[in-house]
Description:
- The protein has helices at residues 64-71, 96-100, 118-133, 141-161, 177-189, 207-222, 234-240, 258-263, 268-277; strands spanning 19-32, 36-49, 53-57, 79-84, 87-88, 103-106, 195-199, 226-230, 243-248, 251-256.
- The chain is α/β, with parallel strands linked by helices.
- The longest helix is centred in the middle third of the chain and has 21 residues, at 141-161.
Amino acid sequence: MSSMKTAQSNPTPAMNNDELIVIRGLCKSFPIGKKKTLNVLNNVDCVIHKNEKIAVIGPSGSGKSTFLRCLNCMEDPTGGSIFFNGEDLADMKVDINKHREHIGMVFQQFNLFNNKTVLQNIMLAPVYLKTKKAGGIFAKPAVKKQIKDEARETAMNLLRRIGLEEKANAYPSTLSGGQKQRIAIVRALAMNPEVMLFDEPTSALDPEMVGEVLDLIRELADEGMTMVIVTHEMGFAREVADRVLFMDGGKITEEAPPAELFGNPQNPRTKEFLSKVL
């Protein structure tokens, strides 16, 4: 982690039982040269409730992906707080890795390990973390075997769910883009996360492969998974999301239920954007 995390946490907000993530005054800037900075996020406030499906839309460069990456501290916030289950992830004293176990992340480019099989990709994180908790290199052989057996069973069950059981021993290079992304999603699910973050999960796919990935995300939504999806798929956002956030200039400039935001946007910038993409 970089030194940009805040040295001291802000006071924990009074959180309702259904509030999973509370974002307060989130800022993120990047240095440009020696004296200038690029402000990508500017005092973003947002509350994500348990079981809520949030779609984040907006023009390129509006801060959508950076916002998502800050939620699991892949990018350290420059300012503000991100309370997850009551703990501020921007506080340097907080064990980020402990919380990341409960935050699944799916990227545009899949990020599978090409030198490992599909099964190994899915098993890797659960085996590593559970073995570490059991004593790492000092864990008993029988315990290590049990951890691997359980991880393998979970991985195979997930592959059956998406109809790719026969690809367990295949390598990512042999798979289609849609297959890679579905495997990337179940790899995140193998950690049994409380929330899933999707960063434009279909943007790198050929058009005919988009549907199979969106169908899987739709299934997760129907099952009650809390999720935040940065997407350009407006029809999907309208169908699946409970709430849509429109970002522009590093801020959330409008948020509303899909029918309201798409049917009667209030912000002129939202209207302009939707007129070009719908």
